[in-house]
Amino acid sequence: MARYAAVDIGTNSARLLIGTIELDQLKVEHFSLNTTRLGEGIGTQSVLRREAIQRTVTALRGYRELLKQYPVAGIRVVATSAARGAANAAEFVQTVWKQTGWRVEIISGKEEAELSYLGACRGLKNLGQPVVLDIGGGSTEFTWVVPGTGIVSRSIEIGAVRLMERSLTADELREVLAPVLAEIKAGRPQCLVGVGGTVTTLAAIEQKLECYDPERVHGYYLTRVVVDKLLTTLSAMKLEERRQVVGLQPARADIIVAGVTILSTILAELGLDGLVVSESDILQGIIWRLHEKMTRG
What is the C-alpha separation between 178 and 215, in angstroms, rounded? Predict the structure, then answer.
């Protein structure tokens, strides 16, 4: 048995997963999430704000302390869209190093997509060859397998936080997504799997989960009818009203409409009736990759 830790520093949140792998199964021992909004302002500027950097570093310092209770064989800390496009990304990486001793890897959109694909496919069985969709705060990733070619991944720099701050029209959003969706549609996708906070939150809202239950969210089938219904309902609410919605974390209330708008557009353009929700995502993908690296020596 080997224990590993993965840290994902996203545009909206910083997350920690600690898990053990035994007999080719990943068992989650601990999960933490802090809404740090590292990408605050990314819709209008290309730098990470100092307050956002400090919020994120504070969360990471807390994770570092927590890990003292869980000796690990390996740890990997990655940052995604917000850091990837920031002019002061090096300053952020240096600040994290000085305050935590962790070296942050700013990974490409391609690697982000592939890790999410690995996590989702290892976490759900009998999917065949799905398209894995990850709607993040700053970007949206798609990953699928093309027979004879292998894994194909595409990353689009539009996510829930970025869309909220840029306020694209419906036509502009479709235009941004169109090239990748046309490529996916040409392959006639049979199954779409969604990872990330937008889809897991919608599954929690639809099931009216007062206390978030990963087991009830993982594998849940979210229909396009439900997605569109929730988009209409949430869009009509004021921010304070959304913060009272059962299943919706108050810290996500401001960006949820943008995230659901992206999802609704994708389902409509692909002509799909819905998608399978996966709790297993980039964090699990990171741990599986760490395990492969460690066991190969």
Answer: 34
Map residue 290 onto helix, strand or coil.
helix
Three-state secondary structure string covering 102-126? CCCEECCHHHHHHHHHHHHHHHCCC
Pair 255, 164: CB distance under 8 Å: yes
DSSP characters for 128-161?
-SPEEEEE-SS-EEEEEEETTTEEEEEEES--HH
Distance CA 173, CA 153 (A): 19
Q: How far apart are CA 273 and CA 40, in angstroms?
A: 33
Q: Are 144 and 184 within 8 A, CB to CB?
A: yes
Cα within 13 Å of Cα(25), Cβ side: 5
- Nearest CA among 27, 24, 20, 22 for reference residue 3: 20
Distance CA 171, CA 176 (A): 9
d(CA 217, CA 250): 18
In this structure, what token pair is assigned to residue 280? 């297993």
Average pLDDT along the chain: 94
Q: Compute CA distances 40 → 11, 35, 55, 110, whole Å.
A: 8, 11, 11, 23
| Contact status, residue 257 vs residue 231, Cβ threshold 8 Å | yes
DSSP secondary structure letters along 179-231: HHHHHHHHT--S-EEEESHHHHHHHHHHTT-SS--HHHHTT-EEEHHHHHHHH
Question: Is residue 49 classed as helix, strand or coil in its secondary structure?
Answer: coil
pTM summary value: 0.91
Query: Is the pLDDT reported for residue 40 higher than 70?
Result: yes
**Is the CB of residue 19 less than 8 Å from the CB of residue 26?**
yes
Write the pLDDT tens digit of every residue in 209-242: 999 999 999 999 999 999 999 999 999 999 999 9
Percent share of the chain, pLDDT over 70: 100
